[in-house]
Amino acid sequence: MNKIRFCYKNTLKFLSQNEIDSMNFKTTEVAKILENGSGLGNDFLGWIDLPEKYSLEEINKIKSISEKIKSNSEILIVIGIGGSYLGARAGIEFLSHTFKHILPKEKKEGIDIIFAGQNISGTYLKDLLEILEKKEYSINIISKSGTTTEPALAFRVLKNHLEKKYGKNEAKNRIFATTDSSKGALKQLSLKEGYETFDIPDNVGGRFTVLTPVGLLPMAVAGINISELLLGAAYAKEHYNKEYSQNDVYKYAAIRTLLHQKGKEIELLANYEPKFHYFAEWWKQLFGESEGKDGKGIFPASVDYSTDLHSLGQLVQDGKRHLFETVLSLENPSKDILVESEKENLDNLNYLVGKGFNYINKKAKEATVLAHVHGGVPNLEFFISDASAYSLGQLFYFFEKACAISAYLSNVNPFDQPGVEAYKINMCALLDKPGYEKEKEFLINEDII
Ligand code: PA5
After folding, report:
1. Largest interatomic CA distance in the chain
2. Given 107, 134, 192, 310, which residue is catalytic?
3. Taking the mean position of all CA atoms in its chain, how far away is CA 2?
């Protein structure tokens, strides 16, 4: 069942239908290259078949471990960064109660998830340790390489805390490692300590792992129906194989490429529901790390409206005309509030009596789209029918495929991230990590430190 409608009519002031149609050949060609595995980065195409080929045994293992965690913990600490963090957070924030952390236990679906290892803030970790003193908890450490500094550091601290709290034996029953099936420090540590592990397939790169245990275990523990999520993704896999004129993935990839060619350097992913905030964070990493290389790439940015209409709205309306907007619209939010009448009408809001917040929000969106298009900002829009696991699965898959095709349209390898190494090398040198002496010397000679 299709849950996503794509509309590009608000780009037609900036692009002609002919230009869009003329992308048919090239887009279909790169889509074929993606499907037949003959393109750049073809070692990392495992994500394409994940929704259909997921092993039932693996799903059952995820579900049974998630039941175990829910039965003995109030919190699951999920440690990871980048692709080992953002997908799970996007899914959990999109599908959970907005204030889940302070809901009474009996009203919660699943248990609370708290993320760590996505920064190196001492304050963040110290505050977390303080919370954990009086809580029953477990840890899911996620790192494909098993060597990333941020999560490894957080894990060292949290593992010690867990071992002090429960003793080494019980702690080991509360640690779950999601990592490479054979390589990396985390795999070795897990084998030595006897942690339960989940494998990240070799042929799925970090930011494409949301439909592997990387995303699925934390989401299952948060009470999300991961089978529905995979069904939505499986629908997307089937649906977005159609020919260009009926294929929204292809058209989205083609249109953003055309807009980029016309000088639109920034794509702003806009939403009107706070639930989408972390989805946008996931999307930014997906497109930023996949397309931003070889001096190329659209800069992926995001805005939460109407909040940001009061901060960035001026710039979007009137600033440099180098951006386009892609709006995520939730068609049927699950809850609403009606504006009530007030006798004195001191706030002058009685003209809205009987109207729902969702209706007013929708009008705010329509007004903004009109204003921005009029102000020279092309607008693309996705209408997502509901905030369900199924819709989210379709959405994750939609953007993964669109991202791969967009990158191929610019002749870029979407599946590597060589640029991420630069800061890591400098950081290791600055921290005097053994093996980085030459890099340190270079920084000193260049007068950088
Ligand atoms: O997309 C990617 O490959 C990266 O963003 C990684 O997910 C991120 O750097 C974390 O890597 P790892 O899972 O190896 O700790």
Report:
1. 76
2. 310
3. 21
